[in-house]
Amino acid sequence: MQTNTLPQNHMEIYWHDYASQMENINIRSASLTEKASIIGRVGIMFLSCGTGAWRVRSSMNALAEAMGITCTADIGLMSISYTCFDGESSFSHALSLTTTGVNTSRLNRLEHFVSDFPAEGIHMSGEALHSQLDEIERIHGLYSPAALGLASALACGAFTFLLGGGPLEMILAFAGAGIGNAIRCKLGKHHFTLFMCIAVSVSSACLVYAGFLKLAELLFHISVQHEAGYICSMLFIIPGFPFITSGIDLAKLDMRSGLERLAYAIIVVMVAAVSAWLMALLLHLKPVDFLPLELSAAQRILFRLLASFCGVFGFSVMFNSPVRLAAAAAFIGALSNTLRLELVDLAGFPPAAAAFFGALTAGLLASLIKTKVGYPRISITVPLDNVFSQYEKVFSSNGYGQTDAVPRQIIVFASGDPLFFGFANTVMRKLPSAKIILFPTFNSLQMLAHRILLPYQEMQTLSLTGRPWDAFDSALIRGDKLIGVLTDREKTPATIAARMLEYGYDNYRMTVGEALGNGEEESVRTFSLEEASQSAFRFPNCLILQRNKVHPRPFGIPESEFHLLNGRNRMITKMPVRLLTLSMLTLREKKSFWDIGFCTGSVSIEAKLQFPELKVTAFEQRPEGKELMARNSRKFGTPGITTVMGDFLETELGGLPAPDAVFIGGHGGKMIEILQKIKEVLLPDGVIVFNSVSEESKALFTKGITQINKKVTQCTRIAVDAFNPIEIMRAE
Length: 732
What we know:
Elements: H1 32-48, H2 53-67, E1 70-75, E2 79-85, E3 90-96, H3 104-116, H4 126-137, H5 145-162, H6 167-189, H7 194-220, H8 240-251, H9 255-283, H10 297-318, H11 323-345, H12 351-373, H13 385-394, H14 396-399, H15 423-430, H16 444-451, E4 460-463, H17 470-478, E5 482-486, H18 493-502, E6 508-514, E7 523-528, H19 529-533, E8 541-547, H20 575-585, E9 592-596, H21 602-610, E10 615-620, H22 624-636, E11 642-645, E12 661-664, H23 671-681, E13 687-692, H24 695-707, E14 712-718, E15 726-731
Parallel strand pairs: 4-5, 9-10, 9-12, 10-11, 12-13
Antiparallel strand pairs: 1-2, 2-3, 5-8, 6-7, 6-8, 13-15, 14-15
């Protein structure tokens, strides 16, 4: 049976195709195309979070300035057209979104990415930067559709009271808004059209409100006058964020973005209004004024404070704000909105004047709270040259100040154990003659183990804070029972879990500790890896992985298990030959292994499985090799293999880890040239292994080895099944 699939209007952009596969080339030295890909991707990701054009443009400009180029951008509601210049050439690109929304959690991570870029990102390769953006892009909303439904229910129920409704209207609006917004979130996740999401969610909210009201009329003889509250059940659909950002964009003369956002907001309101009108006709709803509430002035103020708090808190959660931030906003909203309402009722202020004072109060309270609870900090990033230059000034004249009679001292406050991936290690490296006195306490991983009563004497500890994945990948491949991990803002618990699942390591459960040592904010939670990959976490945090089953780690993988090049089973090193090859490379004693002409990646993968700490760099000229290596690495659980695509003889090798073991899997008739290039980077006592399939290739290898002043020290002939014999040759 043939099925037809509707084509997507927006095709996926493979951002990594813009990046050089050379990990040693930092982004400032990269091509204009590669730089522009980072700028454009960050811009479109900012736009997807619902922020205004001014913030998107500011972020793109900040990245461009750090890279030494200029950028101009035309930004709309769901699209960006931009051009980058480097003084010699230009690169233009047009990007668009499939939908729009608000994700403050992802927005926060993007802002950290941009702010850290001049100090850290500028020293990274384009490939590494795109990998970071991959991780940020995988950040989902903080809350499930059910939680968002509950948040909208709370908000709409609270605002029902603020608009004059009573307990019954609040309860009915709570139910209608909760179900309506949950449905809207579900439809949005399945990529239904904007009109469909609005119409169905508003209609559902009205139907739930009217249904429960009718039930109350039948059971409790409730007055029909309570129909007025059905309007409040759909307040969740009001596009407040687009209205605000459109006003900001228009004020900053970003006319295209401002007008498009305004048009979007008006369309949402119109579709919602038409849907509500049609439901009112179908359900015979004839709303009138709310019934008056008999409340004293003190009661009214108290209930307004509570309702304002709940309303603002609910809407903040709907915008994916963390609970703490939502609570702070709710506190401010409760005071400022209650003040606004009471100025009208008690003092007779005009509504516009009362709104002005309410907004002023909100702004002042926000500044005050930020001052009280926000802790300014100095970020110390590698390199620390500036920091230690200040230390040297203090320790001038061999540790004495120019006028001091006694040595000066520096007190450094560092959390936990300063010797555990801590600042004391840096001090000892930078100032080897310094006398250091330590007053350590428990480090964060020890504290986390204490919280869950976990004996940790066998725990393998490692840090991903500003560090590559190497140590973590090795621990996974070894199958360590307990792994303690220090994280950072990029390598978060969610991205760590996603990486583990990508390579098949679903045999762990993850316990995450957030803000350990802070009594009010500390949180310790345990997740499955699937749950962790879909969750958001507050920084700082650390995690412990506990193995619940053994992951297979074969010794010798049958070639039939690999994804093959065009299904050709002759285009792979056979298992017995592969294992003998690795034996002759003596990889247990090596640090860096190069696999030249990896094809399916079988030799590299087998080497990584058996020697997890080995740095493996694989080269391949055929474009198909990149995907084959990726698929086979994921299948057999070997993260951390560096792939370099292109002609080996034309590849810049300067930034790659110098090899002490090299396997030549293919040479294309250029054996001597390849050996000459290997000679330039091969470490002393390094070995080269080649599998010869003919006398001609054997003679060519022997000749090339002689020319680079080495010699063939071992030669073993092996035949597998009906295949031609292969001669495995070792040179050193």
